[in-house]
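Protocol step 4 of 6: structure prediction from sequence.
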Amino acid sequence: MPSTMSCVVCENKSINGVFKCEGCSLTFCLKHTNEHRQYLSHKLNEIIHEHENIYHIFSENKQSSLLFDQINQWEKDSIIKIQKTAQNARIQIEQFAKLQKEHSKEKYNQISQQLENARQKHEYLEKDLYRWKILLEQFKYDLTILSPSIILHQDHNQTLINNISILKMDQQSILNETLISFSNEIQFDNNHHIAMHCGPYRTPAYISGTQEYSLGQHQIRLFISKMTHEFILSFNIMSKLMSLSSNLSDSDSKYLTYGWQSDDCVNPSQCILSGTKNCRDLKGKTKFYITLFIDCDKQKINYFNEKTKQRREINVDIETCPLPWKLYFYLYDVGDSVRLLSSSQIS
């Protein structure tokens, strides 16, 4: 006869088991079979209760709530850090602006004395008038715009939050470009960083840079001012092989300039790239802050308009504009001017 298993719960081992649980493989008598079933039901209820608690946790979003608390704290700490850094930067700018204003005031008093002497003694010539006009234009700019040698530097080595600081750079190190012209209408400041059309009449006038660009990438920051939006000026590059004279625009010239006009046309017109033909950026404006990028290696140029945040790019055909390149500007209206703010090689 096959042996029978005793109930694992009963102390009296003579009581045979009548039910073997498939889950735990234990044998129970009739009485303890019911108790085992009740025990299993109780455990199931505990699991259901835990399940319901987990559902409430889902509803309360406690998991993300903890992360949100951490994010909120990070946000508060970051805001405090940003506000502190920004305030320090503002204080530095105020200090630089104060020094610049004091320096400009000294120069302003000097020219005031010169103008008073000229009016009383009647001792002045046309070149004196041009020089004073350019100086006053520079004073007007300096009173509204902080020196281009002061820039906002972002430290991209910082994660998530870019730290900012105000750097005072050596003016000579950031501006190694100068301007020249053979047009009688163009007058310059002492450093040849500002060129102005001084007339006496509206007529084409041409300006070039002295630096030659043949390798690498370069950026030149410009401030361009027009008396009205009525007439066109342009900023471009030209080949060193071109001569800076009034015949620069002659159609017979085998070389071409590449750049942009203040009416949003491109020089030369056939080099317009897809998507830029109907671009409206400069037209109708009289003041431009432009960063011009010259890429000699890829033979292209592009500019970034700091006010509109628009960027335009054109390819340069080195057959019609051979390297090395130079800056080239066209002015027409009396009072129009271009100012070099900074120049550097970026690669």
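Step 5 (inspection) to follow. The chain has a mean pLDDT of 83.
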